[in-house]
Write a structure and sequence with these properties.
The chain is mostly beta strands and 472 residues long. Helices cover 15% and strands 38% of the residues. The strands form four sheets. Strands 17, 18, 19, 20, 21, 22, 23, 24 and 25 form a nine-stranded mixed sheet that branches. A hairpin with a 2-residue loop joins strand 14 and strand 15. The protein is globular. The C terminus is likely disordered.
Length: 472
Amino acid sequence: MKNLKGKATIILMTMIVLVTSVVFSGCNVKKIPIQNKDNTTTTTEQKTVSTTEPTTTNVVETTTQKPKPDYSKAYKVYKTVLKQNAFEIKDYDYQNKEDESRQIAFADILGDDTPELIFTRSEIYNEAAGIASDNNSDKDTKVTLNIYTYSNGQCKKVSYKGRDEYELQTSTQNGYFPYTIYQQKNDKNLYIFTQHNFVGNVCKIYKLTTEDCKDNQVFVKELMNQTKYSEPNQYQQNEGTIKGKDVGYDKCEKYKYDNLNNMKTLLLYSDKLDDNYGDYYSPEKCKGMSYEEAMNFLNKYDNTDNDVDYSVIAGVYNLRKNGYGSVKLEIATDGTFKSLSGNFTNTPFDESICHGVIKNLTKVSENKYTFNCGDTVLNNEPGTSEERTYKGMDSTVEYIDNPFNTDEQLVLYTEGTPLSEMDKADYDSHVSWPSDDNEKTLNNEIFIENASTDGTISTYNSIYDYRSSTEY
């Protein structure tokens, strides 16, 4: 019995070793990559065991993250667009005076996943260029909504179907006229909620849609029009329409709040908060940026000329040529400029407004700088004209080119420049005729003219005018 039991023990040990060998040596692991519909990759481990048991499969998911989209090219171009509109953007003062105006936003509203540049700007109308008066209260201004998009390597302004521009507000409007611009949940379209509180309170909701539009075009579709009178009577009844259909005031009230309550992103808004709709817009909720905030954001994508100190030439100047000052130039501390040129003595009037950026600023001497004008744009096409109101009179305004819409190198003499340090050709163009009483230094005017070929100042030991021996 002892010998038999020992043999059984040996046989059992042998069987265990054989089974163990099958389990560990007979198992083959094969990794199979599987491509999912959302372009992510799932790795499947398939283990095949050389036994009669079924094949077992363990699935281990590893998700490959999509690369972040690169909008650097779009943002770089948007920075140029903002600089070209810098003065009009900064002139916007319709918003809450207690907070800095935030009139710039970036958001995809066309559904192509690339953010559009959206901003409001204030500009003068019904006043020829505004050079005749420096008091803005004498001018009529309007606020427009501007949208730019970037696609196929190009930046284009989005146009409005059936209209030249979209006005949000004007200085001639009576009453309270705020607006709120936003996007809804699960909807990239732009929505605009406006109020006009004068005789009655008129509320409207618009949707900017690309339906039946050309490329880079939107249609401003009115969704709701609701009117409420403080004292309704037989001639003034509360009323409302939805998508052009008369549905009455109450249904519009529900539609209005359903729309506002579905707001996801507040992009821009105007004016102070009010009792009825203050919960829907505030500085804390708004995704809009001020001009300075937007430029700081865009500088991460384009830091060109960020280290140039333009403050040395920042200010308001007059171009003086042949004794006459006919062009006004304003240079900001960031190098953007606005030039106003025109003739307002005889009708038809001439007008030119040019925007751009100072480039290649070079200090030649203590009082002389050379520079170029870059990224210039004109408000109106030279050679065109239109009827405008100037000082209360209907007048014809013809649009002309601007001396700063040029590729030429220009010379700037700062205030206080001794006339003796001016290039002779520049001095001759600065005065209409030399005389004894010509100023010895430049006052509030600067002289800007095409530079000499080498951009340097000629040296003159003594230069006299030809009517006296007065040296300058």
